[in-house]
Amino acid sequence: MVNIQSEKERIESWKKARKAELYINPLPVRIWHWLNALGFIILILSGTQLRYPNLFNVMSFETAVRTHNWVAFAVIANYCVWLGFYLFSDRITVYHPELNPKKFFDKAFAQMRYYGYGIFRGESSPHKVRPYDKFNPMQSITYQIVMLLVVPAQFFTGLLMWDVKRFESWIAFLGGIEVIGTVHVLIYIFFLAFTSVHAYMGALGRSPATHFREMFTGYEEEH
Ligand code: HEM
Fold it and tell me: Once rounded to an integer, what is the mean pLDDT over residues 164-183?
């Protein structure tokens, strides 16, 4: 005779394991991400007004400066939440680089082929999303560079320009205020492009809203 109790327990534990397997975006990452996205949009808009007032002019210069500064500090604090979460959590594995070049390039080419061809033929992505290995090689390298290099460089150059008197010696050491300002604007242009391409790629799920919902609920939607 089948033991109904143990059969029920088996089903329950299978359901639990399945749920854990689909939980790809922990709460701190989701909170960080959407506050960060909002912050970046405000920084891009206020930054555009500061640098190109002929192109975009919806507030006074003083309001644009104040908004840009306050939101920038909020975005920096939020970045510390993201960094702290990954540094003290076992989920850091999603940011581990693939150190075997052959494996990396094989997987990266398969992913590029998918984005350039397979996706239009209804094929499924060669990368299987898992909680501890959720990024495909293209996402992995992009997010590593953006989060560990480009974002900190933007914070640093912004901070130097926020108080030129206090950081006078740093500014001189790095080649002067024009150099710092140019780097800040070049990274701003990069973020304009990154945010647009990133939001577009985010819409390439099973339906355009799939990955957006996943970033709100935390759960990958089953294929
Ligand atoms: C309009 C603004 C944005 C939208 C609609 C958006 C959308 C998304 C979506 C749907 C995902 C989940 C899919 C994936 O992992 O690729 C995601 C993840 C991610 N986004 Fe964004 N994003 C926006 C802005 C940004 C900005 C400004 C940054 C960085 C400066 C950023 C950095 C990231 C990172 C690092 C992840 C992976 C997070 C993790 O799991 O650790 N996003 N985004």
Answer: 98
> Reduced to 3 states, what is the DSSP secondary structure of residue 188?
helix
- The Cα–Cα gap between 100 and 97 comes to 9
CA of 198 to the centre of ligand 1 (A): 7
Give the mutation target among 198, 206, 207, 220 for probing the ligand 1 site: most ligand atoms within 8 A of CB.
198
- Residue 161's pLDDT is what? 98
CB-based contacts of 154-162 (< 8 A; 24+ apart in sequence): 154/184, 154/187, 154/188, 154/191, 155/72, 155/75, 155/76, 155/79, 157/181, 157/183, 157/184, 157/187, 158/72, 158/184, 162/69, 162/72
Of 99, 188, 172, 176, residue with least CA distance to 140:
99
Report all structural domains of the chain as residue ranges with CATH numbers, in order of start: 22-217 (1.20.950.20)
State the pLDDT at residue 3.
79
On the question of pLDDT at 2 being above 90, the answer is no
Nearest ligand 1 atom to the CA of 212 is: 10
Closest approach atom of ligand 1 to CA 202 = 10
SS3 category, 9: helix
